[in-house]
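re: the backbone from monday

yeah here it is again, tokenized this time
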């Protein structure tokens, strides 16, 4: 096969044309540096809205926030039942009703009570008979009609009758009758079958488990009355933080149902054991509740504070929250500020510790960060 090459003079003639064509093409423009979207240059008008201050160190304690619940104070609650077996004839207490100690919550008819009253009246009558028999025996003994043994026999029978009367009296007390009721029974000698369910403490009826006409037993809890002037907050502390709490500590709690209201109380119980299924330690906090705002069953958060440490702290108003992350604006020079991500601790009293991302002495925007972030967003949208 044969190859044909163009003549060398022809190639030489083409070179100037190629060079001229290359010169006619314009060179690409130099690349402009990319603008950092986190840096904002402020105008004099915007700068008047900003307050800048250096980040400083402060003494702050780490705060552990654990879920808690409001419960009744078990030392201020009474589960009240009937003293005898009977059928409920009337109910006088309803849920939420405030009652005092000694108030009648319900009444019932009881044949058991009637039988006990009858036994008492018989013992009372027998005691009276034996007292009169002893009096006659003493007169007969002084007249030398009966022997000393016969008198002692009569006195022994009196002591037995008195013991039976006292036992019957105690049985009536067990069945719910007061000393006044028993005196009235002794005077009237009339048996009645009405027994009352009496409140044993002042408080609010928080539970009622009976209906009209129901037959109840002494073992049945018919009403629950609780004094809600004090309540408990119960929480489960992770075992790693259990050393932060001890009985007697003053602790703070936050109740979400009460518009994030904070309340103070004292720890009255810290469990000595760890629950194996949750690896937590149960703690109880006693809280005063004079206005009854805290209600059993409410959810809350218990705040456990550790030992104080020196940390960089900033005002909460300096923090910019975006995409579930925290940022602050750090001053670069007189007109430029940079948005920087930080990791924060638990807020307290309007300030928050900075765990990562900021050093002491760096100047940040402590007021006006909201306006500065709006300006950054605007410029970012403009491209």
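seq for it, each position gets an aa:
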């Amino acid at each position: 096969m044969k190859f044909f090459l163009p003549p060398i003079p022809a190639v030489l003639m083409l070179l100037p044309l190629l060079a001229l064509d290359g010169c006619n093409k314009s060179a690409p423009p130099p690349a402009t540096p990319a603008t950092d979207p986190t840096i904002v240059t402020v105008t004099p008008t915007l700068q008047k809205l900003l307050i800048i201050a250096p980040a400083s160190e402060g003494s702050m304690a780490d705060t552990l926030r654990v879920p808690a619940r409001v419960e009744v104070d078990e030392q201020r609650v009474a589960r009240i039942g009937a003293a005898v077996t009977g059928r409920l004839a009337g109910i006088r207490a309803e849920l939420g009703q405030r009652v005092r100690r000694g108030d009648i919550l319900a009444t019932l008819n009881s044949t058991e009570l009637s039988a006990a009253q009858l036994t008492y009246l018989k013992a009372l009558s027998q005691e009276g008979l034996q007292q009169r028999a002893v009096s006659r025996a003493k007169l007969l003994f002084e007249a030398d009609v009966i022997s000393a043994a016969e008198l002692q026999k009569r006195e022994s029978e009196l002591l037995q009758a008195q013991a039976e009367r006292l036992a019957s009296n105690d049985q009536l007390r067990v069945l719910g009758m007061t000393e006044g009721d028993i005196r009235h029974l002794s005077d009237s000698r009339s048996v009645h079958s009405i027994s009352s369910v009496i409140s044993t403490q002042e408080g609010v009826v928080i539970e009622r488990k009976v209906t009209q006409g129901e037959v109840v037993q002494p073992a049945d809890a018919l009403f629950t009355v609780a004094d809600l002037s004090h309540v408990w907050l119960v929480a489960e502390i992770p075992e790693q933080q259990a050393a932060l709490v001890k009985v007697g500590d003053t602790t703070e709690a936050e109740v979400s149902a009460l518009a994030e209201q904070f309340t103070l109380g004292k720890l009255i119980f810290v469990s000595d054991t760890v629950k194996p299924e949750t690896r937590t330690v149960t703690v109880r906090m006693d809280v005063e509740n004079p206005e009854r705002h805290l209600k059993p069953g409410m959810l809350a958060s218990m705040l456990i504070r550790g030992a104080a440490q020196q940390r960089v702290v900033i005002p909460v108003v300096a923090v910019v929250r975006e995409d579930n992350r925290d940022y602050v604006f750090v001053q670069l020079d007189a007109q430029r500020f940079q948005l920087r991500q930080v990791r924060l601790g638990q807020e307290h009293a309007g300030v928050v510790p900075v765990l990562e991302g900021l050093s002491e002495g760096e100047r940040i925007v402590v007021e006006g960060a909201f306006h500065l972030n709006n300006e950054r967003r605007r410029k970012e949208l403009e491209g």
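The longest helix spans residues 111-142. The first strand starts at residue 39 and ends at 41.
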